[in-house]
Amino acid sequence: MPDPAAVAAPRTAEFESLFASVVHSAYGVAVRFTHNRADAEDLVQEAALLALRGFDSFEPGTNFKAWFLRILTNCYFSTRRRERRRPTVDLDDTPDLYLQARAGQAGLIGEGADPAAALFDRLGAERVVEALNRLPEDYRVASILYFMEDLSYEEIARALGCPVGTVRSRLHRGRKMLQKTLWQVAEESGIVSHSSAQGDA
Amino acid sequence: MSLDRTTCEEAFRKLDDFLDRRLGADEMRIIEQHLEVCAACAREFTFAASLLEGIRSKLRQVSAPPDLLARISARIGLASRGPGGGDSSPSG
User: Fold this and answer.
1) Mutate which of B47, B61, B75 to disrupt the A interface (most A C-beta within 10 Å)?
2) A115–B50: do the CB atoms touch at under 8 Å?
3) pTM to 2 decimals?
4) Among A49, A83, A116, B27, which is 20 to 30 Å from B8 by CA?
5) CA-CA distance, A41 to A34, in Å (whole number)?
6) CB contact under 8 A, A28 and B62
């Protein structure tokens, strides 16, 4: 059970302060990881306990949020990864500019600095999450860390325990896949008609 | 700077790294100069940036329970009960 006394009191106070500064961000990531608020809270709690016990390994002055999210990601992988979901998008068959082409055909590209805004207004958050969840797990997790918290490629690599080049590849390919799954979700939910995707690869 | 096909292809190949600011200062500047004079690439880059921002803003719409910090702190033996404690990054 909890043993905060295992960490010297001044450092426990330091941990509390730092944890308070990231707990909501960590919860947001955990919700996206687990798809479930109860599981997300359990995951943050599990990560917090491990982080407290291992706080001596945190180097003061470095990015605590990145350090904590690395622990959270490891917790997620160790407890949930066996529940592998089957991705519903192929890895390599999304053409360049896929979503721009489809949205253009459907008349959903706006003018100005935010041309995809009209599409996202129609999609809403739930459908964007659904599109994300159709990515293969390794791509989904890297994308969550990237989109939710603006972690650097290097910080994501440390969280995932893989080379920076692997992160770059997953993020870039993940974006292409996301374009396809976003359009899939838009079609399935009736936001756009299937006819507007004729000629799909 | 020439607007030949190679330049557009080169710019497009670096689109993701440009948006993530993973290029060196010189490469960033070359792409920026190209976008100033190439409307087609500028449209593609603007859409790609808008797409990333749309995904980012929708995914971040997560509201945390107000007593999250207090609950977790109590369960792991910390004293924190800070009212409104914690960051507010995920919202909505």
Assistant:
1) B47
2) yes
3) 0.86
4) A116
5) 10
6) yes
What are the residue boundaries of the structural domains of chain A, listed by start? 4-80, 98-196
Rounded to a whole number of angstroms, the distance from the CA of B2 to the nearest CA of chain A is 23
Among candidates A23, A96, A178 on the partner chain, residue whose Cβ is nearest the Cβ of B68: A23
**Contact B59/A99, CB-based, under 8 Å?**
no
Q: What are phi and psi of B61, to 5 degrees?
A: -80, 75
In chain B, the domains with their CATH numbers are 5-75 (1.10.10)
Nearest CA in chain A to B74: A2
Q: What is the DSSP letter of B74?
A: H
Using alpha carbons only, give the angle A160, A164, A167 rounded to the nearest 5 degrees: 60
Region A4-80: CATH code? 1.10.1740.10
ipTM of the complex: 0.86
Nearest of A172, A174, A156 to residue A164 by alpha carbon: A156
Contact A25 B90 (CB under 8 A): yes
pLDDT tens digits, A2-25: 555 555 666 888 999 999 999 999
Note the pLDDT tens digit of each residue in A167-184. 999 999 999 999 999 999
Domain at A98-196: CATH code: 1.10.10.10
